[in-house]
Amino acid sequence: MGCTSTNEPEPPQNDITRTVLVYMVANNNLSSYASQDFKEMLNGMAALPESAPGRLLVYYAPASSTPELREVMRDGTSNTLKSYSDGLSSVDAARMREVIEDARSYTQADSYGLVLWSHGTGWLHDYGTIEDEPEQQSTYSFGSDGTPAKKMSIESLNRAIDGIDWDFIYFDCCHMGTVEVAYELRHRTPVIVACATELGLEGMPYDLNVAPFFAKEAQLDVAMGNTFDYYDYQYRIGYGYGCSISLIRTANLDDLASYTRKILETYGPGSTDYQPVPYFRKVVMSTGIYDMRHYIESLCTDESLLKRWADAFDATVAKHSTTAEVYTLPAKDFHGLGCQIITYPDEAETYNYKATSWWKDVVSHATFNTDNQ
Question: Disulfide engineering: 26 pairs with which of 10, 62, 242, 286, CB 3.0-4.6 Å?
Fold first, then answer.
């Protein structure tokens, strides 16, 4: 006869824990907004239920300060876990990898989310850390650190964040909602939130978005909605420049790449007379981020192929919200995912677009008309 009572309680099951790392590259003209956002994080964690499993770490690198890895506590305070005084740039891949490893060693969570905070301009080839280009030749990259500014290419970013299966990546910066960026990072995370356009200086409302980041299943649609609502309200009352923001599912990017390649192989890159829908103002960039759907629909006359492409696009851009205008740009033809348009091969030399995986796997296979050159 056994001695164990069937009425004894089961041992407690530990909830899955999540660490969210905010990588804040603020050694630039956004430094004052970094301190405001950090205060929002303190308020957001203070409002989080104690039962919500998770820890919020911030790599905090404002202007004229030693970068620190801080933990935002549940009581609305913060602790400094580590200082980084070796002078290594925050946009150096070695520094980012070091911070990620430190975050993992301090928390040892079951899952991880990543927020990338700084300036952003999409893609750019590099050989490590790159010096900024002249203002009229704005480059494509994540982050802006110091003067003269150093930036990180999307290829370097992809290498730097390897080693963790991120639950999500949220770009709290401008111009990262492009197919080139998403395709480069498709093996790093199942979901990306990003803007293909400019984003307001205030960034996302962290006091509201901490909670959805730490939901049992991270609620990126809620976080995206909170950000859009913040800017939409400003736009509707006549203050601010609007917002266009997307939730991107990376599992569908290989299908999107395959159908896009087929269309470009069949129809070429299109006429030089095509008028693309820009996601940027000329005062911001000297080359392009354009609406991808508007572009592809201008090329493909095969209804069956276009339908397969559109299904892959809709599966990739799972959610998109936009105001009627974004930074004075009419947004009626915004579909939430930007792309570069290469009409002849030599254009791919600009900022070494040829380094992107999207060029190698997709655009380079277009049937180019060399007469365009």
Answer: 62
CB count within 10 Å of CB 2 equals: 5
Angle between helices 206-213 and 31-46 (to 10 degrees): 50
β-strand partners of 62: 26
| Sign, Cα dihedral of 256, 280, 172, 158 | positive
Specify the residue for token string 């030693």: 66
Q: Are 243 and 232 in contact, with CB atoms under 8 Å apart?
A: yes
209-241 confidence digits (pLDDT tens):
999 999 989 999 999 999 999 999 999 999 889
* 188 within 8 A of 215, measured Cβ to Cβ: no
Question: Helix axis angle, 206-213 relative to 220-236, nearest 10°?
Answer: 160
* Cα(232)–Cα(244) distance, integer angstroms: 9
Q: What's the pTM?
A: 0.90
For residue 62, how many other CB atoms are within 10 A of its CB? 20
